[in-house]
Amino acid sequence: MTDLDLLEIDAEDVTVVDIKKRLLDTDHEGNTWLLAKDDKGELFVEHHCSARENDDEIRVMPLVDFLNGEAGTPAARELLRLVGLIVDDAEATSETS
Fold it and tell me: What is the Cα–Cα distance from 28 to 49, expressed in whole angstroms?
């Protein structure tokens, strides 16, 4: 029995958090990376490990940690591509103003 098995949760103490997610990458082993944003505006990356690696473990990483540790990976390149779209959109908006 683990400490979690002994944990009792009162339904009144549970806070539901709305998290929006966008797929960054899925590899051939079944690992998935998602860009996520909670209802407070915090951004992070979720790495859903394949069942073969860690029994469906989910790792949550702040963006800076993700980019430092995963630089050059397809998921990091996709995140940077999305950031570039924001810049492109801002340039187009400022050119028309």
Answer: 12
Q: What confidence tens digit (pLDDT) does each residue in 69-83 have?
A: 988 999 999 999 999
Whole-prediction pTM: 0.71
29 DSSP assignment: T
**Structure-block tokens of residue 12:** 């009144």
Residue with tokens 């407070």: 40
Residue 45's DSSP bridge partners are: 35, 61
Gap between the Cα atoms of 65 and 74, Å rounded: 16
pLDDT classification of 27: cutoffs 50, 70, 90: very high
Rg (alpha carbons) of the chain, rounded to whole number = 18
Output the six-digit token pair for 30.
């079944």
CB 70 within 8 A of CB 59: no
Expressed in angstroms, the distance from the first to the final Cα of the chain is 63
